[in-house]
Amino acid sequence: MSYHETLPVEAFLTKNQAGLHYMGDIEAFYRNGKDKLFGYLVRMTADHDLSADVMQESFVRYIEHYGSAPCQYPLLYRIARNTLNDHFRRNKRFTYSEDEVADSCATTEEKIESRDMFEHVVKAMQKLKPDDREILSLATGDGNLSYQQIGEITGNSEANIKVRIHRARVKLREILKKGGI
User: Fold this and answer.
1) Among residues 19, 17, 11, 28, which one has the least CA distance to residue 64?
2) Which H/E stretch holds residue 111?
3) Boundaries of domain holding 163
4) What whole-number percentage of the chain has pLDDT above 90?
5) 171: Cβ contacts below 8 Å, ≥ 6 apart
6) How far apart are CA 75 and CA 62, in angstroms?
7) 65-105: pLDDT as tens digits
8) Do both 88 and 163 map to the same domain?
9) 74, 126: one domain
10) Mean of the pLDDT values across residues 5-17?
11) CA contacts within 13 A on the Cβ side of 103
12) For a tag on the chain, would you pick the N or C end, based on fewer CB atoms within 10 A?
């Protein structure tokens, strides 16, 4: 199932005691968080379909376990991180497919250049250690996660997160400068 074929929000409806469906803040939580979470997962895996599957599984797990609690993005990212780790543990290897990252809708030269640059950076990120790749994936993109939130997701202090992000960026910059793709 591709990202654009994700489950409709209604698939996440829950029932109250009277058997009636309610959404509360969950609908807004899903709509506001799905693109950001998907971006994080693509940067982590470089696999479009896997990212879509993990994103959906993460929202389902979140709603099953925390549906009535206030919506918390750091908790959602932690669930996604654990779901991704479960996948890698089960499959015991990490694969990368260039076709998965490509945007099939790219028609203009600018979109093609942007896609190529994105693919180049994603390939370079795959050369980082998994911990460095994860910390950069959380810190970049449109996730808008603070250092404190990233610390909550990874179980590290805010100061440690700042240092790790800086070091990971330096390593990524070195890989990109060397053209090590």
Assistant:
1) 11
2) helix 109-126
3) 107-181
4) 27
5) 128, 132
6) 8
7) 887 778 888 899 999 999 998 888 888 654 444 444 444 34
8) no
9) no
10) 47
11) 16
12) N
- Per mean pLDDT, which range of 52-61, 67-76, 166-175 is the poorest? 67-76
Residues 127 and 46 in one domain: no
User: If you compute the radius of gyration of the chain from its CA atoms, what whole number of angstroms results?
Assistant: 17
Answer whether residue 21 is part of any domain: yes
Number of domains in the chain: 2
Residue 34 maps to a domain: yes
CB 153 within 8 A of CB 77: yes
Q: Which domain-ending residue is among 93, 115, 135?
A: 93
Place of tokens 């899903």: 30
Pairing status of strand 21-22 against strand 14-15: antiparallel
Amino acid in the structure at residue 80: A
177's CB contacts (< 8 A; 6+ apart) are: none
